Amino acid sequence: MKLNTNCSLAIKGNSLYKLVFLCLILFTTACKEEQKENIEKEMSETQLIDKAKAIHERVITLDTHNDINVKNFTDSINYSQELDTQVNLPKMKKGGLDVSWLVVYTGQDTLTEDGYAKAYENAISKFKAIHKLTEEIAPDEIELATTSDDVRRIIASGKKVAMIGVENAYPIGTDINRVKEFYDLGARYMSLAHNGHSQLSDSNTGEKDSIWLHNGLSDLGKQVLAEMNKWGIMIDVSHPSKEAMRQMIALTKAPIIASHSSARALCDHSRNLDDEQLEWLKQNGGVVQTVAFKSYLNTKKYEARDAALKSIRDKVVDSLGVNWYEWSEFNQLDDSTQLNFIANRTKIMDIANSKANAIADFPPAVNVSDFVDHIDYLVKKIGIDHVGISSDFDGGGGIEGWNDASETFNVTLELVKRGYTEEEISMIWSGNLLRVLDAVEAISKEIQAAE
Question: What is the pLDDT of residues 257-278, one digit of tens each?
């Protein structure tokens, strides 16, 4: 039997209707499934953020390296205000940064009595500035700590914590009694060199030309190291040469720190520690404070973006009417010019990066993920007991996502995303560094008791 044309069309039409209806059902179901997945994902992200916020609130967050300019420690301009600085009290409160190690930094100058005298004057001015902040400007908001017990007590009182590190022991000059003087002023870590060989130690910068002054430590440097052990100042190996670090570990009776360095295996820069140095540090019981400094985290990524940023940056520099210096020129500047440049640099780069981010396919910035990649590597290489955190804020540090103290939470969030537990995050943020501080203090008491 043959179907007539009208009947045939009706059947085909009915089949087509069913097919369209089925497609609609499948499409609607798929949309609902996708919507459900998106809702679950959003809930998961929200839960993750809530979890990270709770952890961030409970742990002690401690940053071992923040540079200062004494101009920001006056009655009229100071850290109680929302300054352009990467670290100040409003930003610490906003980001949940509990402890800021404020740095008494002195650039390298001539190894002469005149050079030592100027450096000492500079160092004392910075010690005084920090004491003025904690004792006169904002004593109800921030207090100076010299022990781990101080840190916990001050945080429990609701205040922020200031601690003091000395970057470059050059101001010691030839007077080892200044080690005790700096200790009495609150210093609890000190490096024996910076960018350039000091009277005490060779610097990592010697790698550039293979010219060394002491082949590690000088005899005076060894005496200063012994004084640091005696009085309870942590030895900081972030800037000295590899050979100087080897000798320090052989001589010290206490654990050491690298106050702001990262992993050389991931970024081949002389300011980072190679695997051999990391093993020395582990065996010594010390801690490396991973640093959020762009060019020490991912040189390739940093240089690609920096090259692309140059024309934008030059226009910003011109419009602001300020001077720009490359890092290769930085060490030739006097301390005041260095600090002014750092302040201007932060402002310039913020503006330039804001413009760059509006350009499609612009080279990406070094970010918090790159930073935590170094933490991951260090944890796997030497164990979680030996890894900490630093920023080098107001000294050239800062990355996308953690560009000032107000963004501190983003580091904790990334650690939570990577699967670190609250206990591990607490160790990385402060526990390991405070453990070393306690050990150094205990050993100093033993040394003093034995004399």
Answer: 999 999 999 999 999 999 999 9
User: Are residues 418 and 410 in contact, defined by beta-carbon separation less than 8 angstroms?
Assistant: no
User: Whole-prediction pTM value?
Assistant: 0.87
Angle between helices 368-382 and 275-284 (to 10 degrees): 60
Residues of the chain with pLDDT > 70, as a percent, come to 90
Which contacts (CB < 8 Å, 24+ apart) does range 142-149 have?
142/79, 142/89, 144/186, 145/99, 146/186, 146/188, 147/437, 147/438, 147/441, 148/434, 148/437, 148/438
Whole-angstrom distance, CA of residue 61 vs CA of residue 384: 16
Instruction: Please give the Cα distance from 151 to 99 (Å, whole number).
Output: 8
Of 108 and 33, the one with more pLDDT: 108
Token look-up 């030839």 returns 174
Report the alpha-carbon distance of residue 143 to residue 151 in Å, rounded. 9
**CATH among 3.40.50.2300, 3.20.20.140, 3.60.20.10, 3.40.50.1000 for 55-298+366-450:** 3.20.20.140
Q: How many residues does the chain have?
A: 451
The DSSP symbol for 60 reads P
